[in-house]
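User: Before I run my own analysis I want an independent prediction to cross-check against. Here's the chain; please return only the structure tokens and, at the end, one sentence I can use as a sanity check.
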Amino acid sequence: MSALDAAAEPASAPPPPGPADAPATPVGRVGARASSVVEYKCPKCGGVVTFDAPSGQMKCGYCGSLFDPASFGADAAVAAQPEAQPTVIQETGFTEAELAELRQYTCPSCGGEILTDKSTAATHCPYCDSPTILPSQLTGARKPDAVLPFKVTKEQVTEALTAHVKTKRLAPKLFRSQAKIDSVTGIYVPFWLFDTQLAADIQFRATRVSTWTDTRNQYTKTDTFRVRRAGTVVYERVPVDAATKIDNRYTEAIEPFDYRAAVAYQPTYLLGYLAQTYDDTADDCRPRAHQRMEVALRDSFAASVRDYTTFTVTGERIGVRAEQVHYALLPVWLLNTIYRDKTYTFAMNGQTGEFVGELPTSWGRFWGWFAGLFAGIGLVASVVAYLFLGGVV
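Assistant: Structure tokens:
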């Protein structure tokens, strides 16, 4: 039984966290530092520990020791201590609306300020680069049922992205730089997974056309049929991205994920990566999940209407008979870049390596390529004219 099976939730989405679940005081001009930040230290040497994708273990970056993520307990966690006095934040440049979305934490290692948005659950300290977890973001109703650990390393991602960019000869230099490629980030993206039983009844109008001839005429006969397909179809683990900042087109393009590798949620799996908590509820995502299922159901029923010349749908009824919803964190490598006011995204499945990428075209490179091509064509035309027209060009 997988972690997802063991932690099945009712169909209704968990309620949004109330005031008691708030992870930190919102950042304003005067705001208290939050102490709910932890990092994990190596029990042997005290070094920083992160999740190692190739081994599936926790690995110390200093002594190389490996630990089982499930048993890497709270005794290795180091929490920041609350400060007696609030932090006074000077002019920040943020609007009041932006300040309401931000949270401020204290790094347990260096005491530096960690500024995040309200949906961030794991990040790095911007000063000492220590991986930190904000556990209050993933407790109560927001605790995931399961997590799917990373399998693809950053080195594998950059190699794939480098190879991809090399095939795009007209990509701007910005996208061909190693620094840009290295800025790809591993993120645990929140997903709602829908287990849904759909009941459907679809009617078709079908025709079967036959033709024959005799010595004088050609005949055509069209028979019309009313065809019905009805039944129930069960869909399991239909994922919908629950983070509003990530375009669903990209997360759907890198499917599928193998949920057999899912494990019960442990915060240690997040170490070394970014993580987001959901800002779209299950109810927000349910229409998209049902839309995806209904498209697949219609295609499946239509594929069963065989041995007819044509058919069209004349009526349908599709409804949900039963449903369960799971909440999971799934691994995604992501690179977002704004080029000339447009956002371009590269996304890779952190488990399978499936990726999708969009790169802009450099018009300077295009016209340089076109000019070179035109010059080459002109040279070939001159040689042909010389050979066939006796040297007259």
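Sanity check: Confidence is low (pLDDT under 50) at residues 6-35, 79-91, 362-377.
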